[in-house]
Each structure stands twice: as structure tokens, then as C-alpha cells.
Amino acid sequence: METPIQKVRFGTRGSLLARTQTQWVAHRFQRLYPQIEVELVVIETTGDKQRDRPFTAVGTKGMFVKEIEEALLQGTIDVGVHSAKDLPSELPNGLSIICIPPREVPYDVLIAREARSLEQLPAQAVIGTSSLRRRAQIASVRPDLRFVELRGNLDTRLRKLKEGQCDALVLAYAGLHRLGAEWEGRITQILPKEVCLPAPGQGALAIEAREDREDLRALFSALHCTDSACTLEAERSFQAALGGGCTVPIGALASLEGPSAVVLEAVVVSPDGRQRLFDTYTGLRSRAREVGATLARRMLERGAKVLIEAHR
């Protein structure tokens, strides 16, 4: 007879956002299972250790998850809570995503010092972002803007904005919303997907555990959202088939249509924003993975590979 779980150790990065997201999951887990103790274990990842270097210079797949996954395999934590967009397309042997909680709004947002929208930013205004995807898509519609690499936690980025190191920031809506009204209230504009299509998995959380922990999978099933898992599966399948990691300028967003369909929109952009390839594909929810793979193949045939290789 199996011993009942008495404690679950949640692995998390140390940033304010990562801890807030993990606490959100742990709180809901404990409401369901008040008899089980929860513990947050803060783990410093490669991406956290190299905050002053551009993402492209770090050159590591899974730069924000690798050390958490190692802790899972070593048994020093029970689950890892990730921003789904940080997870590589392929997980290490022995690990599995056991739960996708309900997804937040996936869009990007503008936080500007003076302008009230992207359109109102003056020519040569400076956008602070660490994301090549955001930079390339915005350059596609506003080639007159300039961009500066801006890493660090949200406090650091907002301080740099206030100091005038840039005129605006582009960030994910989900993170600001999860941090609360004070942070969300700083948003100037939610960028439409036609301007800036989100990264695959943006706005979603992914709970990872060892494949052999069926006991944890059963417990976390009460937090699992099948709709969010479906859209995430389509986007991650697209990313895997396209061969694009989190540092490549691709966007993908799936949405559900009617009782049985999933619609996937995707874009691949050259780093300078001058070339933009967009496509969409609709398929069955039950075949979300196939939807992503099919759209990727179609876009590769249309020239996406050339745009991706130009970045490497």
C-alpha cells in the first residue's frame, strides 16, 4: 500500500514573478488538499545567473528551467512550476508536464513614459526589450523605432524606463496581471496580435514532474485545464516542428473555435522585421499536436526555414 503524500516541494526561480506564480499554484493546491504540506524551493537558473548578457549570447536551450529539471530528476523537489514559454520543445527523459492550469491572457503590452500607444511613439523612440520576437515584429510595423537590449526583473526594467534609458517597454500581460493591480495599472496598451503575435506558450503555466510520479499527476488533475492544454499543445508542436527555440523570432497563438476546432496562427519574422511570413491552420482539438506540425510544415515550404536560418 502506497504511503499518502504528506508534503510537496515546489521548485521555482527566485524572481518576484516566478515566486508569485508558484505561490498561486501552491495556494490552490493546498486549498484542495489542506492535509498536504507545501514548500517553495528557490532555484537559481542559468538565465538568472547571466542577467547582464543578451538571451542570444547565453545560447542555452532551457536557460530558465535546466536547473529546476535537474532538481526534479535528483529528487530534491517534487514539481517544477514554469512559464510554459520557457520550456524547450523536448523535455529531458524521465520528466513530463503533469498539469496546465487555466491560461492568462497571452498578449504583449506596451508600457510607455509619455505616448499612449505604439502608433503615438515618435520616430526614433527607443523600445526596451530582451525579446528578438517582439523586436522583429514591432520593427515590421514601426521600422523608424530603435531598440535596446533590456534584461533584469520587472523592477529593474521599470526603473530604467523611468530613468529615461528607453521610451517604452514591451512585456507580457500575464506577468503584470499575476503581480496585481499596481503592476497591471502601468500598462499603456495591449498590443493586438496582428502587431505582435505572442510566443508559443505565453500566458500559460506548466507544472513538471517525474514521469513515474503518477500520484502527483492524479493530485494535480484537479488544477488541470483541458482547453489551455489543447492550445499549448498546438503551439509547442508548431515550435518543435519548426525548429525554433525561445530566442528565434517566431510567434504562435492557438484559440478554440466551437465545440471541436482549434485555430493556430503563426508568424516568422526576419530579425530586422523586413520579411514577415504569416499563416494559419484549423484542425480538430483532439489533434492539436497535428495542427501545430501541419502548420509548421506548410510555413517551412513557404520559406520560414530561410528566415530562421538567417538568425542562427
TrEMBL record:
Residues 8-217 form the Porphobilinogen deaminase N-terminal domain. Its cofactor is dipyrromethane. One of its GO terms (cellular component) is cytoplasm. Pfam families: Porphobil_deam (PF01379), Porphobil_deamC (PF03900). GO terms for molecular function: hydroxymethylbilane synthase activity. Its EC number is 2.5.1.61. It catalyses: 4 porphobilinogen + H2O = hydroxymethylbilane + 4 NH4(+). The modification S-(dipyrrolylmethanemethyl)cysteine is found at residue 246. The keyword Transferase applies. Binds 1 dipyrromethane group covalently. InterPro entries: HemC, Porphobilin_deaminase_cofac_BS, Porphobilin_deaminase_N, Porphobilinogen_deaminase_C, Porphobilinogen_deaminase_C_sf. Keywords: Porphyrin biosynthesis, Transferase. The porphobilinogen subunits are added to the dipyrromethane group. Belongs to the HMBS family. Monomer. This is Porphobilinogen deaminase.
